[in-house]
Design brief:
By secondary structure, this protein is of the alpha+beta class. It contains 12 helices and 27 strands. The strands form 6 sheets. Strands 1, 18, 19, 22, 23, 25, 26 and 27 form an 8-stranded mixed β-sheet that branches. Helix 9 (about 445-455) links the parallel strand 25 and strand 26.
Length: about 550
């Protein structure tokens, strides 16, 4: 499989990484019996053509003045105009977070340069027809990411105040960073339902977001009782420095009294509103995609090409696989354009290439993972030119058939990913590039294969050719929430990126490159960081 080396891409043109935090005020209220449930989606356009999704915040229920805790981390290029569009929606389906059923609350278009130069901007939200979105405003703050360290917490509480009349409290925590303009939200935990002695899931906060990298700077932790109405009640809070917390939990869990100042003033003999316990507070280094690439991680690309009948007979000019005397069809265009993108990230430029959905000689049985060069012992092609040549030689020798099954080729690459799980460092990561017309037959098996692969060092990029219905591909991409298997098991992480090729045919190569590789860097770094795997050449002590 083709492997990324240290020589490759133009990745170090990036000036710096920037963290963007978002808050809104006076959003439109679209819900009849409650307030809106806002979510913010960020899109980017840095090539003058297509917009692509960078990411989404969490959903905040019943809130017209949201402060989102999830931030967007973006590579900032000084010499490039990076257009941003922040879209705010009222989410109706909290399970899928689908934008199709959501109400649009307004948007803001600006450039990353404008935000970086001001550090903080507040602008009115507008609707799609540029009318004001009521009195809604959006505030975006930028902070340069110069420190990759994160703080890993394990926290619990005991004997918290009971806030609910008919039940126990539903506690969650908010962490705040001390700034010149006041306390700034850094992180919000999940809600633990109906529990006065909650244990929160382990979580990590970037040290810059928490205390600006200064372990002697105060941190404020608020404990709230969650209410569906959005008016959460403060149980209590405490303040401490990161240094104090770390020193306190070297041998035992650090404990801090949860103090409600209003209750303390009113109630004589008030002691506290519970105790917050910090079992772990550990500063660790989070490696970036570039850390892994330059540290010797090999990224292995496999290419899979759809040879099913839905593409049309190769003798027809309407076919996506048309054997054109001038040497051109949609598959060739996609292989060439996308191949040149991934080739930038490759050292030996040897790609294993498989076809699926065709009847192949000599038995004319349908195969869902045959080597396009018909050499099972060595399915590798030399460079994208070799891939093109193997495709052109293969096409007249096979019969386009069906069904369109993705799961066999996904399981094929997963086999290598499973072997790589034995690695002690982040030495291997696998990327499957599927080029298809979008029609899929084995959806349940494919969902199961993707959910299984989400636990492996593996990503899948699907490039859709032609103008067919790509709703199945967008479903697998699962930007509206984590994909689930046919039995309801959620993927551990999102590993699928879908790119409709026709949208980029007249766009600059940079636009296609950004869309194809948009999610890969984070998928690589987040997987290895999750398992605590270092780059092979890193010697930093744990």
């Amino acid at each position: 499989m083709a492997a990324v080396g240290n020589t490759g891409p133009k990745v170090n043109d990036c000036v710096t990484k920037v963290s963007l935090s978002v808050s809104c005020e006076n959003l439109l209220d679209m819900d009849v019996f409650s307030k809106s449930d806002p979510l913010c989606v960020l899109y980017m356009n840095s090539s003058g053509s297509s917009w692509w999704e960078v990411g989404r915040t969490e959903v905040l229920q019943n809130c017209l003045n949201p402060k989102f805790s999830k931030t967007f981390i973006i590579d900032y290029y000084f010499e490039m105009v990076q257009k941003l569009r922040f879209e705010v929606y009222d989410i109706d389906d909290s399970v899928t977070c689908s934008l199709q059923s959501a109400d649009f609350l307004g948007e803001l278009e600006c450039t990353l340069g404008q935000i970086v130069s001001s550090q903080r901007i507040t602008k009115p939200l507008v609707m799609k027809d540029r009318r004001p979105a009521g009195r809604g405003t959006i505030t975006i703050s930028a902070e340069e990411q110069t420190d990759n360290r994160v703080v890993k917490f394990e926290m619990s509480a005991r004997k918290l105040d009971k806030k609910d009349f008919f039940g126990k409290s539903d506690p969650f925590l908010e962490f705040y960073k001390q700034t010149e303009s006041g306390w700034k939200l850094a992180h919000r935990t999940e809600v633990v339902k109906c529990n006065l002695n909650p244990v929160w899931k382990p979580f990590k906060i970037p040290i810059l977001a928490l205390c600006g990298g200064d372990v002697e700077k105060s941190i404020k932790v608020d404990c709230y009782d969650y209410n569906n109405s959005g008016s959460h009640e403060l149980i209590g809070s405490f303040q401490a420095t990161l240094c104090q917390i770390q020193q306190s939990c070297t041998t035992y869990a650090a404990e801090f009294e949860c103090i409600n100042s209003k209750k303390k003033q009113k109630k004589r003999g008030y002691k506290n509103s519970g105790v917050i316990s910090i079992k772990q507070c550990q500063i660790i280094k989070e490696y970036t995609f570039l850390d892994y690439i330059f540290g010797g991680c090999q990224i292995n690309f496999t290419i899979a090409i759809d040879f099913t009948g839905s593409n049309g007979h190769p003798s027809s000019p309407q076919s996506l696989h048309y054997i054109n005397p001038h040497g051109f069809n949609e598959y060739l265009s996609a292989i060439w354009a996308v191949g040149n993108v991934i080739q930038d990230y490759d050292s030996d430029k040897m790609f294993p290439v498989f076809g699926f959905g065709a009847q192949i000689p000599p038995t004319w049985q349908v195969s869902h993972e045959f080597p396009v060069n018909f050499n099972p012992a060595n399915p590798f092609c030399a460079g994208i030119e070799g891939v093109i040549q193997a495709y052109q030689q293969c096409l007249p020798q096979v019969k386009l058939y069906g069904p369109t099954n993705f799961s066999p080729i996904i399981n094929h690459v997963s086999h290598f990913g499973r072997q790589a799980l034995q690695q002690q460092t982040a030495s291997q990561y696998f990327v499957l590039l599927i080029i298809t017309d979008g029609v899929i037959t084995d959806m349940d098996q494919t969902r199961n294969a993707i959910v299984s692969a989400s636990n492996l060092p593996m990503s899948i990029i699907i490039v859709g050719v032609g103008g067919a219905d790509f709703s199945a591909m967008e479903f697998l991409d699962a930007d509206d929430g984590l994909l689930r298997s046919s039995t309801g098991v959620p993927a551990m992480r999102d590993i699928v990126q879908f790119v409709p090729f026709r949208q980029f045919q007249n766009a600059p190569p940079a636009a296609l490159a950004q869309s194809v590789l948009a999610e890969l860097p984070d998928q690589v770094s987040s997987f290895f960081n999750l398992f605590g795997l270092k780059p092979p050449s890193d010697t930093t002590p744990s």
